[in-house]
Amino acid sequence: MPDDTVSPTGWGRIAPAAARLPRSLLVLGGTSEIALATARRLIARRTRTVWLAGRLSPALDRAAEQLRGLGAQVRTVAFDALDPASHESALGKVFTDGDIDMVLLAFGTLGDQAHDERSPQAAVRVAQTNYTGAVSSGLVCAGALQNQGHGCLVVLSSVAGERARRADFIYGSSKAGLDTFAQGLGDALYGTGAHVMVVRPGFVRTRATAALPGAPLATTPEAVATAVELGLRRRAETVWVPGRLRVVMSVLRHLPRAVFRRLPV
């Protein structure tokens, strides 16, 4: 389909691929390594204004300074995924300051499966952060994008949500809920000018996963950032990182449970 034509998928008029990259970016989870790698890549392409939303801390300030050094105008905003009551007012201030072309929902916690199984409150905290906090902030941002009539909500999901594994079913279940929510939200926004892109990375090598054993098809924050950029250019709805995981998970998803249970995954 040539650029500057009307899309048959219902998104309306399509801009040239480069113009689909955002000039303004709001990051929910402003100290996330994946989010910052994505922000760096987008600043190198087109992004000029960045909001980093997260708990106010020296780490958030350092992240902002790093991005300012790349030439972007960067501001921080206090945001706590575990305080949904504050999301509308905190994030609403960002949108009243000007249109936001892209929201990157990148916060989350891995938890500790062995510990969390013995501590229901810790398990609930994982669920509240990864799912409840995302539902609340995602709806606030989606409503603002819809009111603008344009913009993309990029949601960092995980292949862990594709099928429950003994090793991480608490985290995986929270990501499964997030993924389903994001898909449904994308359908709700269809035809409004705003849309949702779900990103499903495999194991990402970051500081948070440094103590964990590696996994097949492991990836990096920079590789996820590259995939996000490509997805934005294509106006994709779902992005797998690496792309081969789409086939792998299609197979694993349909294995009989008794077989899947014995796999070293």
UniProtKB/TrEMBL annotation:
InterPro entries: NAD(P)-bd_dom_sf, Sc_DH/Rdtase_CS, SDR_fam
EC number: 1.1.1.333
Transmembrane regions: none
UniProt-recorded Gene Ontology molecular function terms: oxidoreductase activity
Keywords recorded for this protein, A-Z: Oxidoreductase
Record PANTHER family: 5-KETO-D-GLUCONATE 5-REDUCTASE, DECAPRENYLPHOSPHORYL-2-KETO-BETA-D-ERYTHRO-PENTOSE REDUCTASE
Family, as annotated: Belongs to the short-chain dehydrogenases/reductases (SDR) family.
Protein known as: Decaprenylphospho-beta-D-erythro-pentofuranosid-2-ulose 2-reductase
